[in-house]
């Protein structure tokens, strides 16, 4: 009986000791030091001189004492420090969500490379850092250096033409395609170009056949699908063309033949290039459309589609 009571007391003592130690161990774990900076972003507009910071942590807001961003530039020497908030103020959108932000005005940064460091300090004095490189370069507006045009066929054949001195030649009975490229320049690089779009004014176009009904829309037509797709780069330019996911072929814009109410006249194209900073830049091009019999056919490039002007074609 005595041994049994002693064993039970020993077991109770061991259990109590283990429970007590376990509680002490849990209480003493410093949970607040387990946090990281999960994201760090900056956006600087050198024209408006606005700079926006955003730092994201995985810590609870009530454990964070301070969040800031430090900027260091060396040529010339620039050192700046900015405080961020998580209270839906000065560029911060949502309060108490672990995303610290701030929008500052009248900040002028010289053209150079910078190191930006996000600094997050919690209530225990533990500091976490995250650094990124950031370059401020002179912003230049984009430009459309050149526009090139081709008449093409469904098999990929065709030829380049200059609308300043030669029309697009509309076939009598065969579909053809208007293909074009825009050659763009931007000193700030390809990523700085937001888009190249085009609009078309066809008010001056009309069908050649009398039995065709046609009422052109007035002004420039503008559709979301009318944009140019980036294709490749050269040493100093970026080449875009009319082919995109919405075009139903790889040759360009389909041009109806005269026999199917194809149209002649002049179409006006407006090409619009936009980057991330400057207002869009516009280049306008007038493209004349002519038919066989107008005495302007390019017999050297497209003989077989206009025997009236070209006569017998030589292979």
Structure description:
This protein is mainly β. The protein folds into two domains: 33-136, Immunoglobulins (Immunoglobulin-like); 143-293, Sandwich (Immunoglobulin-like). It is 11% helix and 44% strand. It is built from three helices and 17 strands. Strands 8, 9, 11, 13, 14 and 15 form a six-stranded antiparallel sheet that branches. A hairpin with a 5-residue loop joins strand 8 and strand 9 (158-161). It is elongated. It starts with a helix and ends in a 5-residue tail after the last helix.
Write the SSE topology.
Elements: H1 2-28, E1 37-45, E2 50-57, E3 64-74, E4 77-83, E5 99-104, E6 112-122, E7 127-136, E8 143-152, E9 158-161, E10 168-170, E11 176-185, E12 193-207, E13 229-233, E14 238-241, E15 253-255, E16 263-275, E17 281-291, H2 299-302, H3 307-310
Parallel strand pairs: 10-17
Antiparallel strand pairs: 1-2, 2-5, 3-4, 3-6, 6-7, 8-9, 8-11, 11-14, 11-15, 12-16, 13-14, 16-17
Defining traits:
44% strand; 315 residues; 17 strands; disordered N terminus; Immunoglobulin-like; 2 domains; single chain; mainly beta; four-stranded antiparallel beta sheet; six-stranded antiparallel beta sheet; 11% helix
């Amino acid at each position: 009986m005595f041994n049994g009571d002693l064993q039970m007391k020993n077991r109770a003592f061991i259990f109590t000791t283990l429970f007590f130690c376990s509680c002490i161990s849990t209480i003493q774990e410093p949970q607040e030091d387990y946090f990281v900076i999960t994201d760090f972003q900056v956006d600087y507009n050198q024209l408006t001189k606005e700079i926006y910071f955003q730092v994201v942590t995985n810590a609870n807001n009530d454990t964070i004492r301070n969040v800031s961003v430090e900027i260091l530039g060396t040529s010339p020497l620039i050192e700046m420090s900015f405080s961020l908030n998580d209270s839906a103020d000065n560029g911060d959108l949502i309060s108490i969500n672990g995303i610290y932000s701030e929008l500052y005005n009248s900040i002028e940064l010289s053209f150079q490379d910078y190191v930006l460091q996000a600094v997050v300090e919690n209530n225990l004095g533990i500091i976490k850092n995250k650094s990124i490189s950031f370059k401020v370069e002179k912003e230049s507006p984009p430009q459309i250096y050149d526009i090139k045009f081709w008449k093409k066929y469904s098999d990929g054949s065709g030829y380049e033409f200059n609308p300043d001195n030669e029309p697009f030649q509309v076939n009598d009975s065969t579909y053809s395609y208007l293909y074009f490229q825009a050659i763009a320049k931007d000193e700030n690089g390809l990523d700085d170009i937001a888009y190249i779009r085009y609009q078309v004014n066809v008010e001056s176009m009309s069908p050649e056949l009398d039995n065709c009904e046609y009422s052109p829309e007035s002004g420039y037509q503008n559709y979301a699908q009318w944009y140019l797709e980036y294709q490749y780069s050269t040493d100093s330019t970026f080449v875009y063309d009319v082919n995109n996911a919405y075009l139903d072929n790889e040759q360009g814009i389909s041009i109806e033949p005269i026999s199917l109410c194809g149209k002649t006249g002049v179409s006006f194209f407006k090409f619009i290039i936009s980057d991330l900073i400057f207002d869009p830049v516009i280049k306008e091009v007038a493209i004349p459309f002519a038919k066989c019999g107008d005495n302007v056919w390019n017999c050297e490039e497209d003989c077989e589609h206009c025997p009236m002007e070209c006569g017998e074609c030589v292979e």
